[in-house]
Amino acid sequence: MNEAIAHRGREHSAWHCHEEQARQLFFGHNRLKIIDLQDRANQPMRSPDGRYILVFNGEIYNYKTLKPKLEQIYPFETESDSEVLLYQIAQQQARVGEELNGIFAFVWYDTQARQLLYARDSFGTKPLYKYEDENYLILSSEIRGILASGLVGKQLDETQIYHYLAYRYAQPDKTFFQNITPVCQGTFNKEHLSGNIYQGTFDREHLTGNIYQETFDNSLTHSHTHSHTHSLTHSLTHSLTRQIAGDVPFGLFLSGGVDSTLLLALLHEQGHTDLPAFTIANTEAEKNFGTEDYHYARLAAQQYKARLHTIEVDSSMLKDLPAFVQTVDQPIGDGAYWLTQILAKEARKSVKFVLSGAGADELFAGYNRHQAFHYYQKYYLLFCLAYPFLKIAGTILPTGFEHPFRKHFRLLKKFAQDFHLNQAHTWDNFLRLNTKINPSPFHPSTPPPFHLSSLLHDQQNYLQHDILALTDRAGMRHELEIRVPYLDNEIVQYANNLSLDFKLKKGKKWLLKEILDAKGGKIYTQRRKEGFGVPIGKWLREPVGKDLIALLQEKQARLAQYIPAQQIHKIVNQHLAQKQDYSSELFAMLLLEMWLRNF
Fold first, then answer.
1. 559 near 593, Cβ under 8 Å?
2. Helix, strand or coil for residue 402?
3. Residue 567 dihedral angles phi and psi, to the nearest 5°
4. Ramachandran quadrant class, 581 (left: phi over 0; alpha: psi -120 to 50; beta: rest)
5. Is the pLDDT assigned to residue 275 strictly greater than 60?
6. pLDDT of 224 over the 90 cut
């Protein structure tokens, strides 16, 4: 099992067996050394008396704050956050999450009380999977670790294919494998090995559960603006101070967008110069299908004194896609997955961990769908009157070929096609790949489940099971930890106490933009919002891309069992003929097809 996930930490690998009566417990760990590089901090970690055992993945950002109180009770032998966690759990047991600020998944055992405790952080930033039957309880950071035990059959859960074809990932409480499930984020699981199991939640109420409306949300004055930007700047600075803690060099994923550039500007203010920054660059000629990140990242690096590493990409890189898919536990049909691991591979040559801007959009209303859905709810009756015209517009806007307005038309076309008189259906459509080609898991007359806040819905679904999932897998595939400062407890609590109306009062992510403006970053706040991606749609029309696309049209194509072959051919042919842009759909379908063949 250790060998199966050795890529997560090759600097030390070990396992420990604890035996009691007719039971054996095995604890294995692969370590990436970031805090306290000495062997004394290796895992599995045991207390000197042998009572407590811990295996832990991630970082506890506030471990230095927690340690003084624990030192009065327990004998510390290291400077690691792991030992702080070992004793914090012993002290607080199921209440341990109340004070932890970090990204983590852990398994902890009390040999005296015979109690097993395992948990993940509130956003599930660090993964943990579970298999359980009458004989075995198996936990691992990756599914391949569970399969490597030799105790679990490899059975496909076909229902997840339909969910993936709609949303790009498996259902939140499922995996592509029968009987293997993710441990729910933000929960502690406490098992008495005599048979009693207890499960509860921590940190959910103030981190991801309730939204409290500020009394001044509807009246934005200059003093309130200053108060909020000052408070948020203070919290972001604290978050960065906590998260750059470590005994090794670190870097930054820099897109030249608001989120990552603001992190760089704040780090520069703290005195970090010549900071390694990493960005993806497509060619200028491909910017209508890719992004202009390369241009803005270069400007940001120059302005805030970072050392920029640019990874240039072109269509020839598609030949590496099949090899990448072979490393994937289960598919996430987001092109950012592939790109992030390309960035991670380059970054790992010089640093052990990087900072990422992930999470800012979901906290501060950064996606086009947040603004579109907010206006749709606010002016619902007007949209209902415009419904027939929107449907017509959705059919005539050209997006399949390269032209200056292609990206604008794509957004307008998606909104026009996804608009529905039922609000829950409209939000669901915003999240889906092209709804005309995907089987729906919902009955047509039944709206899908929907939270009142689109941001909370994104935090609990898209952020956790797409963005954060691919971020961890892509980084740790190359033994690189990726930290997410915007998801620090302090910032999440602050952001979720603001209403969506307030967050959009002056446009998407205006709070972050005003902070960056004040630090000389207006050029980055005024650029158009672009997703993290490459011109995959254009590449698929080139020879190397057509060879991959041909996999979908073969008679033995696995996807043809789930999508009618004629629909697959229609999607492929319309894209190749530049009649429609199916970039996202085709990438997701192609990734799934190759994964199913490997499976």
1. yes
2. coil
3. -70, -40
4. beta
5. yes
6. no
Q: Which residues contact 573 (CB under 8 A, 6 or more apart)?
A: none
> Taking a C-beta distance cutoff of 8 angstroms, is the pair 163, 433 a contact?
no
- Bridge partner list, 483: 355
- Tell which residue, 169, 83, 189, has the closest CA to residue 128: 189
C-alpha–C-alpha distance, residues 311 and 292, integer Å: 14
CA distances (Å), 198 to each of 161, 174, 191, 246, 462, in order?
32, 20, 6, 35, 28
User: What contacts 1, CB < 8 A, 6 or more positions away?
Assistant: 28, 140, 145, 146, 148, 149
Q: Provide the sign of the torsion angle of the four alpha carbons 500, 187, 151, 109, taken in this order.
A: positive
Neighbours of 93 (CB within 10 A): 15
HSE toward the beta carbon, residue 506, CA cutoff 13 A:
15
What is the pTM for the complete model shown?
Answer: 0.90
Other beta carbons within 10 Å of 244: 18
Six-digit token string for 454 = 């689109």
Burial 375-406 (b: 16+ CB within 10 A, else e): ebeeeeeebeeeeeeeeebbeebebbeeeeeb
Element (H, E) at 442: none
What's the average model confidence in pLDDT over 397-424? 67
Cα 88 to the center of its chain, rounded Å: 27
Q: What angle do CA 443, 449, 450 make, to 5 degrees?
A: 135
Measured between its terminal Cα atoms, the distance across the chain in Å is 19
Contact between 355 and 244 (Cβ < 8 Å): yes
For the stretch 118-154, pLDDT in tens is: 999 999 999 999 999 999 999 999 999 999 999 999 9
In angstroms, the CA 454 to CA 370 distance is 7
- 280 phi, psi to nearest 5 deg: -95, 140
Q: Give the C-alpha separation, 313 to 470, whole Å.
A: 19
Q: Which two tokens stand for residue 278?
A: 């990493």
Find tokens 């459509």 and name the residue: 429
* All structural domains of the chain: 3-128+183-207 (3.60.20.10), 213-319+345-533 (3.40.50.620)
* 3-state secondary structure at position 580: coil
- What would the two tokens of residue 559 be? 């996807």
Angle in degrees, CA 451, 456, 458, rounded to 5: 100
- Count of helices and strands (H, E) across the chain: 25, 16
Tallying the residues shown for the chain, one arrives at 599
Give the separation between CA 205 and CA 33, rounded to whole angstroms. Answer: 33
- Residue 19 pairs in a beta bridge with 24
- Residue 377: CA count within 13 A, CB half-sphere: 15
Write down the pLDDT at residue 248: 96
Alpha helices in 155-257 (DSSP H): 159-167, 204, 222-243
> Nearest-CA neighbor of 137 among 85, 192, 82?
192
